[in-house]
């Protein structure tokens, strides 16, 4: 399934979540702490609540425990990132 807008990903302790993003995304850690590995980045990213990173693309792996908001950077590519299991729509 492809995302049609911003969405949240809830990552539980011990979980590994995979996103497949054809276009660059912005990720904002809303709660907890998360480790992000992106196939398009040279280094991994560690985010705590309130921190964000831009440009994650390709295969994006999320580990840790927390809530991450994913926003597509390129408005025309609003269906460029697959939704993982266990997500909650931002509108709710």
Automatic annotation (TrEMBL):
Entry protein name: DUF2917 family protein
Q: Which organism is it from?
A: Rivihabitans pingtungensis
What is an example of a Pfam family matching this protein? DUF2917
Which InterPro entries would you find in this protein's record? DUF2917
């Amino acid at each position: 399934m492809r995302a049609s807008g911003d969405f949240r990903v809830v990552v539980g302790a011990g979980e590994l979540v995979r996103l497949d993003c054809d276009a660059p995304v912005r990720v904002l850690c809303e709660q907890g702490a998360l480790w992000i590995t992106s196939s398009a980045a040279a280094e991994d990213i560690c985010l705590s609540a309130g921190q964000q990173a831009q440009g994650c693309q390709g295969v994006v792996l999320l580990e840790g425990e927390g809530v991450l908001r994913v926003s597509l950077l390129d408005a025309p590519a609003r269906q460029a990132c697959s939704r993982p299991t266990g997500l909650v729509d931002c509108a709710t």
